[in-house]
Amino acid sequence: MAKLTLEALRKMRNETQQAMSMRDSSKKDVQVIVGMGTCGIAAGAKDAFGAIVDAIASKGLTNVLVRQTGCMGLCHSEPTVEVVAPDMPAVIYGNVNADVAREIVETHVIGRKLLDGHICDRPSVDIIANK
Fold first, then answer.
1. Residue 43 per-residue DSSP state
2. Rounded to whole angstroms, what are the CA distances from 94 to 22, 72, 97, 104?
3. Eight-class DSSP state of 111
4. CA geometry: angle at 96 spanning 94 and 100, to 5°?
5. What pLDDT is stored for residue 127 in this prediction?
6. Is-contact 62 21, C-beta < 8 A?
7. Are 83 and 109 in contact (CB under 8 A)?
8. Interval 35-58: pLDDT, tens
9. Is the four-CA dihedral 54, 55, 60, 65 of positive or negative sign?
10. What proportions of the chain, in percent to the nearest 5, are helix, strand and coil?
């Protein structure tokens, strides 16, 4: 086994710190929540989660919190991903594979536009206004 150099240790530390910063909720105004119940995992949620994390890292986004949750109750549309961003309705996307996950980051998180064709659930404006 090769010995670790100081430079290799520093690289490992920086990579770990970058990965851990994605889990820190402070200074993050956008949340991407992946349904990771057993139904979601069976449908490919791990691939979607990984694609989201990779896309956010490759774009250098520091304001996005990626987290997981259990079943969202939309088992027929798994994998599901909810996006909560300021000045936009919270939206749940369904049938999210790795390609769609990357498109969600590009279109919704960065471009601030809803991604048609995969929206499963979003609150109706008239329902929210009547509360």
1. H
2. 23, 11, 9, 11
3. T
4. 125
5. 44
6. yes
7. yes
8. 999 999 999 999 999 999 999 989
9. negative
10. 45, 15, 40
Angle in degrees, CA 14, 20, 26, rounded to 5: 120
Q: Please say whether the beta carbons of 107 and 115 come within 8 A.
A: yes
3 state SS of 28: coil
Q: Are 62 and 25 in contact (CB under 8 A)?
A: no
- Give the pair of three-digit tokens for residue 41: 């995992």
Question: Would you put residue 20 in left (φ > 0), alpha (ψ -120 to 50) or beta?
Answer: alpha
Q: What's the rounded mean pLDDT across residues 7-36?
A: 85
- In tens, the pLDDT along 76-120 reads 899 999 999 998 889 999 999 999 999 999 999 999 999 888 998
Domains of the chain by residue range:
27-129
**27-129: what CATH class?**
alpha beta
Q: Locate tokens 């820190």: which residue?
A: 24
